[in-house]
Amino acid sequence: MLVKRVDNVAYDELAEVELPSGHIRRGRVLEVNGDTAVVQLFESAAGINLAQSKVRFLGHPLQLGVSGDMLGRVFNGMGRPMDGGPEILAQEYRDINGLPMNPAARDYPNEFIQTGVSTIDGLNTLVRGQKLPIFSGSGLPHANLAAQIARQARVLGEAASSHHADAAIRLGESEAGVDNFAVVFAAIGITFEEAEFFAREFRRTGAIHRTVLFSNLADDPAVERIATPRMALTAAEYLAFEKDMHVLVIMTDLTNYAEALREVSAAKKEVPGRRGFPGYLYTDLATLYERAGRQLGKPGSITMIPILTMPEDDKTHPIPDLTGYITEGQIILSRALYRQGINPPVDVLPSLSRLKDKGIGKGKTREDHADTMNQLFAAYSTGKDNRELMSILGEGALTPTDLLYAKFADEFEKRYVNQGYGENRSIEETLDLGWELLSILPTAELKRIRREYIQKYLPKKEG
User: Fold this and answer.
1) Considering 2, 232, 244, 390, which has the largest number of Cβ atoms within 10 A of its Cβ?
2) pTM more than 0.85
3) What's the rounded Cα separation, in Å, for the pair 203 and 451?
């Protein structure tokens, strides 16, 4: 919509179009040239009578009314309730674009978050305040993994130690912690069936009470898709830094977000960059991802798991490529493992959490965590190589030890990686399972683990 004879109108400012019937449709300013403004509508332009409609500029960008009452509620991509409940009584209104966190005010992430998923907890550990994306592919079950993490994620309390992890205070379960852990879930450009799946999963497991769900459907306008993750992060910042909560932000699917950004950029006739995406895609993604973290002097935190589908399973595509530059690692899902019926199909070897060493060890998870993690990586890598050799040269070409490594790789995938979407493993169970699998190998092969840990934790072989 082109609005002429405007005065003092700014880029990104919110506008209201009042129809003759009294109905109001909202939009935002895309471009200002002299006394002419280009306004992009959030809804359809059908039925607008230009001669009799009025346009009002509100003097501020898109805002979200935030309150502690948001927990347990479902909103659309523009922050309006869509669960049939009442409007939120806002304690304050916040600009959804937020402000970048001052690097000098950032606190270093160093506390373990238990997701209940062995491949993440044991090998690519998530730390409070970290940004750890999941790189998926079209048709892979990232929605199930996202729902599982949202249901199961816990911050282990101070009581966690190598002997007392079972007695640890689990924020979200204990009396003291019920109000301390929250999940903000932003579903971007998803289908109606996926939206129903997420809402049903959260309600079925009772996780809805600690969840704020923003749901933007595939048939909603592109400009709303751009607002949805910012709405979610604004809610997360309020809960984390005003309500002192530990907030886990899960966003799926960032590919839909980037494509909406490309659509709006093309409409504004901007010069395209790689694969038609705007040249500022890196900067734009950074304005989202860098809102996660911990602040000095504030007990709350924002931990982020963005999920994106790699077009054609290509990790050099601009969206996963730029995301990898900004975030601290990535979890990659494998189509080959998915075809074998392994769920969640996490490809362990190319996956990485750059902060994993900061959240593990004595007093955080268990003293043997770092050593067993390194040994499992090494053994699985060797086992996969030996398995490939076996398929080319035959079993007879391999030594007995090589065959044990190949057996280890098979068992590792079947028992450690494959756990389904209903099983919630504690960090103790994950570490014990790792030791059980390492017992397949001769003790002399466990070169990355200290001898005292082998004597203490390795299951004794019968006979």
Assistant:
1) 232
2) yes
3) 47
Q: Distance between alpha carbon 357 and the CA centroid of its chain, in Å?
A: 20
d(CA 50, CA 44) in angstroms, rounded, equals 14
157, two tokens: 């309390």
Contacts 24+ apart (CB under 8 A), 332-338: 332/134, 332/135, 333/134, 333/135, 333/136, 333/137, 333/140, 333/141, 333/142, 333/145, 335/137, 335/140, 337/413, 337/417, 338/140, 338/141
Q: Tens digit of pLDDT for each residue in 222-270?
A: 888 999 999 999 999 999 999 999 999 999 999 999 999 999 898 888 8
Q: What are the tens digits of pLDDT across the range 323-338? A: 999 999 999 999 999 9
Let me know: does 79 contact 231? Beta carbons within 8 Å.
Answer: yes
Q: In what order do the strands lie in the sheet with 126-127?
A: 126-127, 112-114, 154-155
Please report, for residues 128, 172, 173, 248, 363, the alpha-carbon distance to residue 177 in angstroms, rounded to integers and kept in the order given: 15, 5, 6, 15, 19
Beta bridge partners of 76: 215
Asked if residues 117 and 419 have their Cβ atoms less than 8 Å apart, the reply is yes
Separation in Å, CA 127 to CA 122, 190, 460: 12, 28, 33
The backbone torsions φ and ψ at residue 250, rounded to the nearest 5 degrees and listed phi first, read: -115, 125
Note whether 344 and 134 are within 8 A (CB).
no
* 3-state secondary structure (DSSP) of residue 359: coil
**Helices 400-411 and 369-393, packing angle to 10 deg:** 110
- The string over 116-129, giving b where at least 16 C-beta atoms fall within 10 Å of a residue's C-beta and e elsewhere, is bbbbbbbbbbbbbb
For residue range 371-429, what is the model confidence (pLDDT) as tens digits?
Answer: 999 999 999 999 999 999 999 988 888 999 999 999 999 999 999 999 999 999 999 99
Among 137, 186, 144, smallest CA distance to 308 is for 137
User: Do 439 and 131 contact (CB within 8 A), yes or no?
Assistant: no
CB 141 within 8 A of CB 344: yes
Q: What are the start-end ranges of the H helices in 245-333?
A: 254-267, 281-289, 318-326
Compute the residue count for the chain. Answer: 463
